[in-house]
Amino acid sequence: MSRSTADWSRTALLVRESRGHWVGEAAAAVHAAGLRAVLLAPPMPEEEAAALSEVVDGVVAVDDVHDLGTLLVAVHETTGGARPAGMMTGSDGLVAVVAQAAEALGVARCSAEVFTVARNKHAVRRVLTEAGLPGPRFALIGDAEEATAVADHVGLPAIVKPVNGAGSNLVRTVTTVTELADAYRLLATRLPESTDPRYHRSVSGRAGEPELDPTRVFLVEGLLRGPEYAIDVLVRDGEVEPVELLDKPLIDEHKFELALSCPPLGLTTERAKVVTDAVCEAIRALGLDNTVAHVEVIDDEVAGPTIVEINAGRPAGSIMPLLAKLRTGVDVFAEATSLALGTPPPKREAPSLPIQLGMLILYPRESGRLVAVHGVDEVAELPEVIDVVTTLTPGELVNDDQEVYGVNLVVAGFTDHDDLATLYDEAAKKVRFELEETS
Fold this sequence. Notes:
ATP-grasp, eight-stranded antiparallel beta sheet, LAL_C2, 4 domains, alpha+beta, four-stranded parallel beta sheet, D-amino Acid Aminotransferase, Chain A, domain 1, 439 residues, Rossmann fold
């Protein structure tokens, strides 16, 4: 359909920064709602555009999808000035700018300022603290020389992280002032070299507050101790609905999460409600509405359920939404699409596998350009494995500083965390990521 004949009031715009399986999920939901789906994305090889043309109704190249002005010009040129049915993204780094673009086009379902604040981890901490919700002591650090003062205020051990990071990129645990100063220097060296565009733009927060340079100013938080959980939350016209709570029984200091399971093993119904209630309070405090959010929380041994981070505007990454769909029948991507576009809620199916399920995450352990992933067929033959999803494709750059979900497994047939750990070790031995060095 050409631009002149397209009914843009019946067309949803999807905006992507890099490859992601969410595009197919969102496009299917858009089509199910009776709308067209047009994808705006950075220039890509012809073969990739051709493959996407089987999924969406059009692909538009945008030189810089992270720049609001460039994005709005591309939309105007594509639609001829007509207003689309809506605009959405599943790309973490684009949530705020797409919300701003949707607001400028008059199709926003939630204030863009809310998403802007949500992208600033320091601003989120302040909002939650002012709402009276528990949280660790926290501070910004803008120079290695500030390490002593920051450590005195926050306490040690502590966590150091980018103010707008994702995927645990360059998150470090520190136990001494020297380690805190070293962590500052590491982030201040690595982030300016990052190819991720989010680190090369100032980070806004609440109205009237100064912007932060994400390559120079970082967030330091006191270390929380206790079991960690993850949950996707739907917010529709002010009503907050938790979908499915997962626990994170296997965590290491480098990748943070190796496996998840649902429902959380050993967690009582009463305690699960306390955890999810805390998540819902945080969502309301932040002011999110008509959107989805992925929330991570630690049930701290002193403070109780404490929010670790809120990823607003998108569901969980990888195949976590698949676990929820199998166990509950809730299609989080379809729900997120309807919330972003204002279409009727999708019909929910009965749970297809309402049993104990787990997700194993296998990572490349080095940096480089992916050549191939070996052993996927072998790991798929393990009796506990229900499904295997490889999210990386040859040619992609892999950075060991960040959690890059390589191969993801849906598993069943385990009874406790030890079983899950044994299964993880067995699967990890079978999969190998072949990488080549990059200059």
